[in-house]
């Protein structure tokens, strides 16, 4: 599967969509309809300030606080909204938890539905035709290409994100993190681990 590694042969957008986006941006800029600086600010906000740190905070708190964990699993929409993580692309959230028995991963088979307020801008590979098709057909192979090899006894459950429901994967808490506080735990939670194509980082 494509990754965000610039050295990976499939890391870039296919040429046609990239060229179309660039052409559209150029035309709109020349007509004075958009400000490139404003676009850069919006992208920076979603990439670096809104997410995926917001999602990492939710996961780390769920690891630390059993009451919060229970509430998150029961009604993720209400819990993340109370934390201020709501709005466009963040409605109707459902949290699913990885365990020794089940590994969850998320895909949008129709387009690229994704919880922006929690995870920021979706990565290029999440929107690719290959990921959208193969995540459902051969999830273990896709996970292996992301470097995730699961025991045969662990079931893989694939959730199809839609305009009505978006998912947050709560990855398994790494061993050896019992004494770590929420802030430190946040650094172990990656965007991919909250999509299910990665694991939380071991300390």
Please give a structural write-up:
With 203 residues, the protein is mainly alpha-helical. It has 2 domains: 13-50, no CATH class; 51-174 and 189-203, Alpha-Beta Complex (Nitrile Hydratase, Chain A), CATH 3.90.330. 46% of the residues lie in helices and 11% in strands. The chain has a two-stranded parallel sheet with strand order 1-4. It has a two-stranded parallel sheet with strand order 2-3. Helix 3 packs across helix 4 (66-74), helix 4 packs across helix 5 (76-82) and helix 8 packs across helix 9. It is globular.
Strand content: 5-15%
The CATH fourth-level homologous superfamily of the largest domain: Nitrile hydratase alpha /Thiocyanate hydrolase gamma
For this structure, the CATH topology of the largest domain is: Nitrile Hydratase, Chain A
CATH class of the largest domain: Alpha Beta
Largest sheet: 2 strands, parallel
Ranges where pLDDT stays below 50 over 5 or more residues in a row are: 8-13
Number of helical stretches of at least 4 residues: 11
End-to-end distance: 26 Å
Average pLDDT for all residues: 88
What letter string, H or E per element, gives the SSE order? HHHHHEEHHHHEEHH
Structural domain count: 2
Alpha-carbon Rg, integer: 18 Å
Secondary-structure class? mainly alpha
Strand order of the largest sheet: 1-4
- Known CATH architecture of the largest domain: Alpha-Beta Complex
From the spread of the alpha carbons, the general shape counts as: globular
Number of strands: 4
């Amino acid at each position: 599967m494509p990754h965000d590694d610039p050295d990976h042969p499939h890391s870039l957008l296919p040429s046609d969509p990239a060229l179309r986006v660039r052409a559209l941006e150029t035309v709109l800029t020349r007509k004075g309809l958009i400000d490139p600086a404003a676009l850069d600010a919006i992208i920076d906000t979603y990439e670096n300030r809104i997410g995926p740190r917001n999602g990492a905070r939710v996961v780390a708190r769920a690891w630390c606080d059993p009451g919060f964990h229970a509430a998150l699993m029961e009604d993720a929409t209400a819990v993340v909204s109370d934390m201020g993580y709501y709005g466009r692309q963040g409605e109707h959230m459902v949290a699913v938890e990885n365990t020794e028995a089940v590994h969850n991963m998320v895909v949008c088979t129709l387009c690229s539905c994704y919880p922006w307020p929690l995870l920021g801008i979706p990565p290029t590979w999440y929107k690719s035709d290959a990921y959208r098709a193969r995540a459902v057909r051969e999830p273990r192979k896709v996970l292996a290409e992301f470097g995730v090899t699961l025991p045969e006894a662990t079931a893989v459950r694939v959730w199809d994100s839609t305009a009505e429901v978006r998912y947050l994967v709560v990855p398994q808490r790494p061993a050896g993190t019992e004494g770590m506080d929420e802030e430190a735990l946040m650094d172990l939670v990656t965007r991919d681990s909250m999509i299910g194509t990665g694991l939380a980082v071991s300390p």
